[in-house]
Amino acid sequence: MFLAYYLRKDGYEVRLIDKDPVGREASVYNAGLLTPSFAPTPQLSKLQLLSAVIGRRGPLYISPMQVITHLSWFRIASGKALTGFEESTMKIGKLSLRLYEEFFSSENIDPDLAKGVVGLYRTVEDAKAFSTRFGGKLLEPAEISRMGYKGLEGGILVESEFSINPAKLFKQLRTRIQEMGVVITLDKEARLDDGARPRARYMLDGKVFEADSIIVSAGSWTRTLCNQVGFEPEILPASGLVMIYDTGGRRVIARPTLLEDYGIGIAQHDDHTLRVTSFFEMVGFKKHYGEGRKKWLVDIVSRHVTDLSKLRLVEEGIGFRPCTPDQFSVIGRVPYYENLYVASGNCRLGVTLAPASAYILRSIIRGEDCLDEIKPLLSPERFHS
Ligand SMILES: Cc1cc2nc3c(=O)[nH]c(=O)nc-3n(C[C@H](O)[C@H](O)[C@H](O)COP(=O)(O)OP(=O)(O)OC[C@H]3O[C@@H](n4cnc5c(N)ncnc54)[C@H](O)[C@@H]3O)c2cc1C
Fold first, then answer.
1. What is the pLDDT of residues 276-319, one digit of tens each?
2. DSSP secondary structure code for residue 305 in this structure
3. Whose CA is closest to atom 19 on ligand 1?
4. Cβ distance 196 to 337 under 8 Å?
5. Is the N-terminal amide bond of 42 cis, ω within 30° of 0?
6. Among residues 317, 12, 347, 8, which one has the least CA distance to residue 166?
7. Whose CA is nearest to atom 3 of ligand 1?
8. 114-163+237-323, superfamily in CATH?
């Protein structure tokens, strides 16, 4: 939708096709944190990747079947140990935050913007280690307790980053691009047609359509679409669970927070809405979390959030993060095609990076400069000789 927004502003005629009629995917079901600083954490080591295949204990789980069916993805991931992306991703993230600020100040859009993101740790040493590497203000245990938490000694506050209610951002952005004249086709599944290579075409309801540019920004389904024209973008889904509670009008926590030892996000958007998120499961497109997994999440939150009385669960959702094995997005032109582009693979940071990803692809389509030194790292060709 950010791509549609920027391209329409440039004067292009834009059509957006989404098979989901109402918005139930990752862009709605996520933690809503716009926080490049926390992008590098929690870090995933080779050992964690291996133990994630063995059992579901913490938030991470990888089904052995996924490993067997996607060997090349896991070979690249274990080679990189999912690190090495931090500095460049931070640069893209900073561009995104600037674009978000411009967007919020120029558009009449308010998705419960809250400034300042907190990372909490069991020990002060872990908070200090984060602060030394990535910055942020260290929090005293008394401040952490005033924010509504217990049993956590270390904390970091990154004042310049923020959180939003992603469901509101999704709805308001969609309304805005519609007002701007983007043609929106919902509840229809698009396909790609390679019959006219090097020109790609798209198909809808069995009809073939031409376009100057076709952009695949289909989250975890980007692979399915790209495979239709013989291209492998190396994007796999990693699911996560979102639980939304009504707090009965009480402020339960003072700031949007990441419980860094557990990979759990908590944010209160307004007087009533508390969002709790966790899990990174590579199990394909399975839309189910068992009671044991939910209990693990609720138990940790109960252990560390001081006042959970009167909370009422009002909504649950599952989102699929579109993940590449090297943690970089896939942004650029698809090999062998003149008019086919991809903007996807933002994995854990898709909301944070959405405006910058759109801006980078826009610059590629228009032949303009924008973070040119980073573009090769994002290139769709990088996994293929
Ligand atoms: C639990 C959880 C917490 C997260 N927390 C954060 C966070 O705090 N901050 C952050 O930055 N990111 C976070 N993320 C990641 C972020 O949500 C995703 O990276 C981002 O939403 C991906 O956006 P997307 O538009 O690429 O994909 P999606 O939101 O999945 O959208 C893809 C769309 O493409 C459509 N589509 C697919 N195939 C077709 C087709 N053939 N035809 C038509 N339409 C099609 C789908 O219907 C869908 O609507 C989190 C994710 C999860 C699951």
1. 999 999 999 999 999 999 999 999 999 999 998 889 999 999 99
2. B
3. 350
4. no
5. yes
6. 317
7. 30
8. D-Amino Acid Oxidase, subunit A, domain 2 (3.30.9.10)
- What is the per-residue pLDDT across 223-271, written as a single tens digit (0 to 9) for each? 999 999 999 999 999 999 999 999 999 999 999 999 999 999 999 999 9
In this structure, CATH architecture of domain 1-40+83-112+164-235+326-385:
3-Layer(bba) Sandwich (3.50)
In the chain, where do the E strands start and end? Answer: 15-18, 33-34, 60-62, 114-121, 137-139, 154-163, 183-186, 191-196, 199-204, 207-209, 214-216, 236-246, 257-259, 264-268, 273-282, 312-323, 330-333, 340-344
> Of 2, 351, 353, 361, which is best to mutate to test ligand 1, by the most ligand atoms within 8 angstroms of its C-beta?
351
Q: How many Å apart are CA 122 and CA 247, to the nearest integer? A: 25
* Ligand 1 nearest-atom number relative to CA 353: 11
Closest CA to 219 of 124, 351, 121, 105: 351
Q: From CA 265, how far away is CA 166, in angstroms rounded?
A: 13
Beta-bridge mates of residue 13: none
What tokens does 147 get?
């924010």
